[in-house]
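Internal tracking record. Fields below are filled automatically when a chain is submitted to the structure queue. Please do not edit lines marked as system-generated. If the sequence contains nonstandard residues, flag them in the REMARKS field before resubmitting.
Queue: standard
Priority: normal
Entity type: single polypeptide chain
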Amino acid sequence: MHDVVLETDNLTARFGGHVAVDHVTCAFRSSELTAIVGPNGAGKTTYFNLISGQVAASEGTVKLDGREITRVTVARRTEMGIGRAFQLTNLFPNLSVLENVRLVVQARRNKGFNLFSMAASHGEITDAAEAALGRVRMQDLAGQTVSELSHGNQRKLEVALLIALDPKVYMFDEPTAGMSVDEAPVVLELIEELKSDATRTILLVEHKMDVIGQLADRIIVLHNGALAADGPPAEVIASDVVQEAYMGKALEDA
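SYSTEM-GENERATED OUTPUT FOLLOWS
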């Protein structure tokens, strides 16, 4: 059994009279990729926001490596090892792809976001940034301005930034959304590569059941903010109650 890295206990988010996430208790382990699925409005994104810190919990706790981080800031959670793609995008849309990745490498090495210190002599920073871009096959776009990238390449850059950050927990929210048929396999192959690292934990919000079937070790289903199912992909997908009540048309279209 792999170690528990991340856990939520009775995690709840209320917005006025609406309960978006309803007392969700779940543990996520190293080298495990968990797909989080459910119909629109089920609470998936809010659950992600609670874990990464964009939304404050109304009740319950979030723990990383056994340490409670429920009231810890987004920036501090990132430093502690929780990486979420959109947290890192568009840092500097008018800078190049390579410069954006170098900033993340520099920050991870505690050298600060100082563009003037990023001289060519900092070869190790550039090498690490280029390696991250190479893994998403964007090395040929290193000099392009981020704001000029296609949507698909922006999504791939999100993954490169996460790799440069080197988090303990990777959080992907529909990573292939808006990508072309040619672009999506690059990201899916990379996520599959990342999950082979026994020290990493991956959470994936995804609607495409073929993607989930290819990547997930486990599926949890949220419905009306509550945890409705949790188990191996084949078991969860085959469940009548999940197909009929929780997945609905998403499964019919798969």
